[in-house]
Amino acid sequence: MDETPIRVSYSNIFRMSHACVTTGEMPGTNCAPELSHAIRGRSAVSGVTSHGNRVYAVRDYKTEVEVYDASSMELQQRLPLPKLSCVSGIAACSQHNCLYVGDWDISSIHRVDLTRPSDTKNWSVGRIPEGLSVNGAHNVLVSCLVENKLQEYTTLGDLVKEVRLGVANPWHVIQLSSGDYVVSQYTSPGVVSLVGPDGQVLRSFGESLPQTGLEVEPMRYPVSLAVNKAGDILVADCRNNRILAINSALSRAQQFPIAAEVALRNPYALWLDEAHDRLYVGEQRGRHRLLVFSNVNRIYFKQ
After folding, report:
1. How confident is the model over 224-232, as a mean pLDDT?
2. In a domain, 162, yes or no
3. Is 10 domain-assigned?
4. Alpha-carbon span 73 to 205, nearest angstrom
5. What is the sign, positive or negative, of the torsion defined by CA atoms of 94, 112, 40, 73?
């Protein structure tokens, strides 16, 4: 049976008119994101990232990486990963021109050399690796859900450091230029925390409703994160069927404006490509879509 993802273009259908996601007003500015593509599949999108003019996505129970043209979102090829058991995320490194794919079933990371895609390498990591990211040192970070820690590896698979985190059930970890980490906790109510290099929590959002700004319902099992250059955070609030935007101070949050017609179902994977003004969202339920939103750079928090 042909399992080629079904690509649907929405560039001329959804022109959203929601207000900007800000804590202040921007008169006369149209900050609404535009849903330009929705690519349906037969299984959940477990991870998405981009590198150059290519977009890379992985799906549950698939031993391959889907490769799309970033402009047209047409499927270009599939990169096989025959040793992959159960995918848990993906990250790209421009410095080393490679992809990292997590495998939670056998607690490992698979590395794909994009110059020679058949050249793969894998190594063991902590138990239940979930969110992957690449830091400023061009090393790969992995959050270990069961062991409440993060690990940092070189592109050759050498362990650089291991940090015990002062949070429970860390799902995704992104390191900021300051050296601190943003961490999502797979809990309900959900929590997103800023954690120091020693693993201690500096501040959190989600333990209680914010005292300032627009109040939002508590998160339920937040998963993937995306952080912009200003340090503002987007969170895939999976069980609430929404994307939440939290400011860099972790003091305010508002819902990312997505038209009701989109009917977002269990957002699971996030990737923010600020250079190309796009946000990629992968769904865990429904039609298992890979959604592409354009015109997102103006959606921010006014400090």
Report:
1. 95
2. yes
3. yes
4. 35
5. positive
Give domain status of residue 253, yes or no: yes
Of 141, 77, 143, nearest to 114 by C-alpha is 77
CA distance 229 to 111: 26
Q: Which domain holds residue 259?
A: 6-294
- Residue 236 phi/psi, 5-degree rounding, is -80, 100
Is residue 57 assigned to a domain? yes
Burial of 12 (0-12, 13-18, 19+ CB in 10 A): exposed
Q: Is 96 in contact with 157 (CB distance < 8 Å)?
A: no
Phi and psi dihedrals of 240, rounded to 5?
-95, 0
Q: Which residues contact 291 (CB under 8 A, 6 or more apart)?
A: 35, 37, 38, 39, 262, 264, 280, 281, 282, 283
Tens digits of residue pLDDT in 128-142: 999 999 999 999 999
The domain that holds 212 is classified in CATH as: 2.130.10.10
Q: How far apart are CA 60 and CA 29, in angstroms?
A: 39
Q: Which of 92, 97, 140 is closest to 116 using CA atoms?
A: 97
Domain count, the chain: 1
Number of other CB atoms surrounding residue 146 within 10 Å = 14
Q: Residues 74-86: pLDDT tens digits?
A: 999 999 998 998 9
Tokens 């599939």 identify what position? 78
How would you classify residue 240: left for phi > 0, otherwise alpha for psi between -120 and 50, otherwise beta?
A: alpha
Q: Can you give the pTM of this predicted structure?
A: 0.90
